[in-house]
Amino acid sequence: MKKVITTVGTSLFTNYLEDSTNIKTDYDYVKDKRHREWEKCLQRADRIRQSVAEWLEEAGENASAEVKSLLKLRKAEKDHLEVYLLATDTVTSRLACEIIKAAFEKNVFNTGQDINVYFNEMQDVITGLQMENYAEFVKTGAPQFVRRINKLVENDFNGTIFNISGGYKGLIPFMTIMAQVNNCDVVYIYEDSDTLIKIPRVPITVDYGFIEQFYEQIALLDQGIEKYGETKGKNYQVFEELEERGIVEILGDWAFLSPIGKIFLENYNSQFFVFYASDEVWKEINRQPDIQRILKVKLATPIRESKTEMKENHMVFDDGNNNNRIYYFEDNGKIYIYKSFENEEKARKYIQTEFDKEEIIRKSVLRKLKKQ
User: Fold this and answer.
1) pTM score, whole prediction
2) CA distance 43 to 49
């Protein structure tokens, strides 16, 4: 089984309009609308949907770049495909995703169970993923795009293929880099061609040392740095090097992690659980194999929130029916671990202990554990 990440554009509609113009008035109205105007466009979208869906059954693989590439990929891979459609922040991209998904569910292309297509309009329309406003793309679109792909593959890119045939051509460089960094194949097809182009995986080594060296600054950029000039002035050499490496996007008084920087950061975070702890706590963790397992498997995931309880003044990760307990807090997006136990009785007694948050932050340094 292969997972296929497929961006979706508007070739389904432009191809239809070459054969018929009956949707032209409706399409001209919706084609430049952002997704936030979906409800306003719904009546017109439904008229377009009905006409294009009927035509698609006759057009077959030539209906759109997305359809043709998926059918060619099925033949090339000779494997079951799980296809995840991603829409740009537009009415037309979402509409195209819904029509394509429905066609595969109806088995219009006689693929049976060889291709399963998934699209969730609540999660797979990527807010800010557009090219008219580059600042919005950097601050919102690109980060959400990268995060959604990581979520879809569950941070495991093994067997994942990036299909860049549809969608904004401006996304192609970012998707290609993301695929190469995560050791994935890339496929592409020209609509007027029957040849599926496959860009093989290139042996790329991610410079984890660079990311670790500047992790705190990269994490700050990921959140956005206001009055960047002041921040850079306090740590000039570091931010100058980050700028030279293409990690920084400067937008007025703000600075953000560039789309390329986001790809590398997400890749790093998918490999390692990063937190902060003092030397004393770190030594203790290294003597606690169960605690290490919990940190890598549970504290590094959304499970953390569901298993965390406030006990007196402490945030405690309670692993349930065992002795493992972890005392931690979050500050400015960082996780600080200041005590860990493999003994429930000792952990319970510690609840009454006062702690100095500022002192913990002062003594803590970045730590990492390789995720399982």
Assistant:
1) 0.85
2) 10
